[in-house]
Specification:
Order of helices and strands: EHEEHEHHEEHEHEEEHHEEEHEH
CATH class of the largest domain: Alpha Beta
Strand content: 15-25%
Number of domains: 2
CATH topology of the largest domain: DHBP synthase
Bound molecules: threonylcarbamoyladenylate, magnesium ion
Distance between the termini: 41 Å
Radius of gyration: 20 Å
Length: 323
């Protein structure tokens, strides 16, 4: 069971790494320093801890997050690593490089981390406190930058507290970040720069002896250039109808609140629980639809507040017409 929402945010320092790790293992949200920017961490296997990250940031959409690992064993436990990925990891980890890799089947990873995609972004940070923390947690930690949505990324613990004090459980203070810009994100199949960042792409090109392609043009001309918005997001095969009071005969119902539904995001209308269940629910409905030979999913109304905005954003994308 998750603790009550935090009243204060614990301010931890280097000698409190064990405390920070204990909080993360218990499902709390803890900000921590990396060499790029401060991340807002949650145990990557814990749906509610990951949903808590989105809630604390007030993020209006569920972009996939980076899973931070302490060592290569942790990498292999969540992703499939080919020779090229292995080579990049050997050359540049720990450091400001994130690799987008195929998700390992059966990995202990919340689908909210990968936004339901078949790939996962992984990085091994170089900051000594981040390394000590991840080793103590002994499991991958999901973390976007530790700032409220729409604000700039924090490079000191004070920045983190300015934006998120009272909304997260703790911040581990490691002083100012050395790199100060987010990690470089590299897609591997095909080889593609998804975000320019702390590791110059020239260094990657020098290692591999090939040119790294810039991101493909956005699928929609108006799409922002953020990688999470360029990447395709998980959508069920069945067509979705939002804001439905009830399901028609040829539809399954994805419920929210006290309704009789085929799958219910949260019978008690708890948005944190609903967010934690979202991607798993869509997969479950696809299976059910295939079983029952149905092609449509009706979705209960979900309030457009707090995490509800992110849930509705994903549902609207999933409901949008597609080829
Ligand atoms: O330096 C950093 O990378 C910092 C520190 C905390 O590690 N983290 C960070 O996370 O910048 P965030 O969430 O702000 O950025 C992660 C980016 C998102 O834009 C997301 O779309 C992209 O990585 N991403 C994550 N998983 C992906 C995937 N499977 N495919 C494509 N892009 C992905
Ligand atoms: Mg960010």
């Amino acid at each position: 069971k998750r603790r009550m929402p935090p009243l204060g945010t614990e301010h931890l320092t280097a000698r409190d790494v064990a405390r920070a790790a204990e909080l993360l293992r218990a499902g709390a949200n803890v900000a921590f320093p990396t060499e790029t920017v401060y991340g807002l961490g949650g145990l990557a296997s814990d749906d509610r801890a990951v949903a808590g990250i989105f809630a604390a940031k007030n993020r209006p959409s569920f972009n996939p997050l980076i899973a931070h690992v302490a060592d290569l064993d942790m990498l292999h436990s969540i992703a499939l690593v080919d020779a090229q990925a292995e080579r990049l990891a050997q050359a540049f980890w720990p450091g400001p490089l994130t690799l987008v890799l195929p998700l390992r089947a059966g990995a202990a990873l919340s689908p909210l981390v990968s936004a339901g995609l078949a790939t996962v972004a992984v990085r091994m940070p170089a900051h000594p406190l981040a390394r000590a923390l991840l080793a103590a947690v002994a499991a991958p930690v999901a973390a976007p930058s530790a700032n409220p949505s729409g604000k700039i990324s924090p490079t000191t613990a004070a920045h983190v507290l300015d934006g998120l004090s009272g909304r997260i459980d703790a911040v581990l203070d490691g002083g100012p970040c050395g790199v100060g810009v987010e990690s470089t994100i590299l897609g591997l199949a095909p080889l593609q720069l998804l975000r320019a960042g702390g590791l110059p792409v020239e260094e990657i090109e020098a290692l591999l002896g090939t040119v790294v392609a810039a991101p493909a043009s956005p699928t929609t001309p108006s799409a922002p250039t953020a990688p999470g918005q360029l990447a395709s997001h998980y959508a069920p095969d069945a067509a979705m109808r939002l804001d439905a009071k009830e399901a028609q005969e040829d539809e399954l119902l994805l419920g929210f609140g006290a309704v009789a539904a085929d799958v219910n995001l949260s019978p008690s209308a708890d948005l944190l629980e609903a967010a934690a269940n979202l991607f798993a629910a869509m997969h479950q409905l696809d299976d059910l639809a295939a079983q029952k030979g149905l092609r449509k999913i009706a979705v209960s109304p979900i309030p457009e507040t707090g995490l509800g905005r992110a849930i509705n954003d994903r549902l609207r994308r999933a409901a949008a017409p597609r080829d």
